[in-house]
Fold:
Amino acid sequence: MLHHTPPPRRSLSRIFRSALLAVALVASASVSMAEATKPPAGGELYVYEGTLNLNELKPDAGITTGITDIAGNKLIKLDFPAAPGYPGMSFPVPGDGWNLSGYSGVQMSVHNPGKEDVTVNLRVDNDGDWKTSPWNTENVTVKPGETQTLRVTFGRSFKAAGYKLDPSKITAIRLFLQNVKGPTTIAIGKPMAVKGDAPDSGSNASQGSAGVPARPPQQTYITSTVSPADHSLPYGQQWELVKDWTFGNKRPDATIRNKKELDAEFYYRYIYDQARLDILPTYWSYHRDYEEGDPRSLHVFGPDSLTLKGRIPPGGGLKKRGIETGMLRAKTPFVPGMYVEMRCKVTKGVGAWPSFWLNPGVQYKNGTFSKLGWPPEIDIFEFYGFKNRAEARTFSSNIQVNKKPEKYGNPYDIISVFHKSDYTPGMDFAAEYHVFALDWHENRPLWLLDGHPIKQTYYEWHAAPAHILVVNALGIEFAKDDMKHMTADESNWDFVIDYIRVYKRPGVVVPGYDAPPPTPEGSSSAKPPEAAK
Structure:
């Protein structure tokens, strides 16, 4: 968050993907053949369960992708604008292609949530001269509200003999419509390599055929999260509880119900400038805290949540120091061997920049400080409200060393579902609660979304113990052209938090903050880092 120079919107990251990701998520519409890759035993040709990562799909003609819930299942949603020709989407194929020897075809479920019939086409290709049409194609017409199975059988096209496709050298899998007259939406399951005979050719032949039910397949997906009744364990993990900050003024399991209790656990400014720093040069809003009940309050308790507000004060506006926002800086230090998670709904709109991150430094109760400095920082998430990201669907998670790896260390990813620093799993994070977490393994911090690992990075932290920050920032200073599209809609500026909880592994010692160590690492004269001036 304390960026001396702003992070590029599409900066290249050092992604060293695991072998599994290299096989399952590498996108290529046409590839040269070496030894083609065999699919998993279940025949899955594209996997999005667990991460809901759609970055590797290749839609064209302005088609947008997302995740939708149909009958309790998470399916890929495709929104087609009106378009001539054959608008569609290519699925990722391994760099050496698919070897589907032993399979008879490829199929997927197709659901029509609209009001008119939709004819959907699926094509499976070999490499070769396009004049010979080295592919097999099939289609199915899906009535409103129906789910059908769309299957391509190798060697057949449109229910008749077709090109003699070589199953061992599949180079592309593509879904498409034809001459779309107006906005059209379909929902699809993942493509599967299948064995056995093709279904009958009747209009409803796909119902229950080839082991695929008429409704979307029942599988385990990420679904909406719930607020756990047991506060002693993190979401899907086994730890020792250090801090339970569960917010709400009426819920029976709340641990922080009002501003007085919040004051005991958090500060509302950055640690620099004697803990008085209320703004960073990278954004417009500045941070204030008012007494509970004050109409200007930026830390507002609801029945089961705490909201960090954004408001334009008298004389303010969409400009530097023209907006007031809430923030939280936890008093409890945070070190390797600890785990933190937050269940929240973030802000949205152009100019919104909600963040959840770790920054070095401890503020002691006697007014002194540990050694302060910046970088490094660990960004658990940052949502950048650029003009093309008014909805909160894409976030970044990084370790910031201010482009000085020789001084602050050189982080590199061990595994990651992020694409060029971004992750767009398909959910609207402003519309529904999700759980964001960091499991700080020594030198190997691990990011999780709704209990599922999404990234792990190698990085050696040599700074002071960290503190946890949750910041509602508004107005992105380094994207001024985009900010011309920002609107003063305060209803978009609510950062709603269900809980924040901190845990540790057995044996990990959590540093205290009652008093500095016997040999103080710093003093009350601590200054902000150069990047924050």
